[in-house]
């Protein structure tokens, strides 16, 4: 006797999703006269990112936001703290610090 299948078989289970429905939480926002795609991320496994808003690290497992110009490529994606993304008009990657200034 073969084991019981707990889930019903669905022939359409491997059909690709429509392109517009791929990431339901993605949205487009305007910033600095450019359209940006923004997607919240629950957390990553094993990779540390640097937030361009505060220049601090985003450790693995911490929820954050990934944003990129609408017509940009994979290399244009940036990982931001959620609060830094919301305050992006007051924060920027163009902060000038002296060589010995603390980064906190």
TrEMBL record:
Residues 1-25 are annotated as: Disordered. Residues 9-25 have a biased composition (Basic and acidic residues). This is ATP/GTP-binding protein. It comes from Streptantibioticus rubrisoli.
